[in-house]
Amino acid sequence: MSPTSTEREILTYDLFGAAIKELAQTVVDDYKPDLILSIARGGLLIGGALGYAMGIKNVSVINVEFYTGVGETLDQPVMLPPTPEAVDLSGMKVLIADDVADSGKTLELVQEYCAETVAEARTAVIYEKSRSIIKPDYVWKKTDQWIDFPWSDFPVITPTGTPTGGEAS
Fold first, then answer.
1. pTM above the 0.90 mark?
2. Which domains does the chain carry?
3. Residues 90, 63 contacting (CB under 8 angstroms)
4. Which of 43, 73, 109, 157 has its CA at 20 to 30 Å from residue 80's CA atom?
């Protein structure tokens, strides 16, 4: 569904809290990771919240750029520096956390990065879309609607008096 559609999946901060509790319970009932690897930016809050909910202090970040705007992506996702050293992940059971498995390309890239060094890698997301090429191991909700996350559904904040968008200064 396009971002201009009037039907949207709305995630509030309150609903996010409930989603994390449910997602964390699903994970701990099945898997005990040594480390949570959060995919920045969308997975930062998910990985951190899962870390707290599951009592896991070993939370790391990998930065992947794919979306360049609303509904706009690069041809392929790209890892941005710094990336965790593969040796730091060696032999670990890793939970890869992200906000949504949309196309699945970002999760696929991170899974491939981890594949040769980790003992096991599983994936957890708040949302999964049917078109995703990766089927995450743990999902809170499936949807094909555009998702409004509470941390990204407002314009970028700029200094007071600074023009935004395409306005000239």
1. no
2. 14-148 (3.40.50.2020)
3. no
4. 157
